[in-house]
Specification:
There is one protein chain. By secondary structure, this protein is mainly alpha-helical. It has one domain. It is built from 6 helices and no strands.
């Protein structure tokens, strides 16, 4: 169990460092990863604005985060709860296979994100 906890903490540290490095790189150079869906269709995907949202959250600018991507901001607590649930199960049992409840919540979140993506393009266009 300790070994799995260490693996999770190491992975979280790597993700955090990569995210901070990307934020620093983009802030210094002005070069950000473009959204391929937006580039191909001209429409916004459910994730469009996630970088701006995360940068605003790092500055504790909740209004800016809301302006960047309100749908994902609202779904973030559920996404984090699902990730925490899965990580705690992995640490406890060593199983990477999601439970039935985790899969159900995951699909609900996917459906909500897709619905938000459709809705944001209907309202904005």
């Amino acid at each position: 169990m300790r070994r799995r906890l260490f693996r999770v903490l190491r992975g979280l540290g790597i993700v955090l460092l990569l995210g901070l490095a990307y934020a620093l790189w983009g802030t210094v150079t002005g070069l950000w990863l473009p959204c391929p869906f937006h580039a191909l269709t001209g429409l916004e995907c459910p994730g469009c604005g996630v970088t701006r949202m995360c940068l605003a959250l790092l500055r504790l600018d909740f209004a800016g985060a809301w302006a960047a991507n309100p749908g994902l901001l609202l779904l973030s607590p559920l996404i984090l709860a699902l990730a925490g649930w899965q990580v705690s199960d992995f640490i406890r049992t060593g199983s990477r296979r999601p439970s039935r409840g985790q899969r159900a919540l995951g699909w609900v979140l996917v459906g909500l994100a897709v619905g938000y993506g459709i809705l944001r393009n209907c309202i904005c266009t």
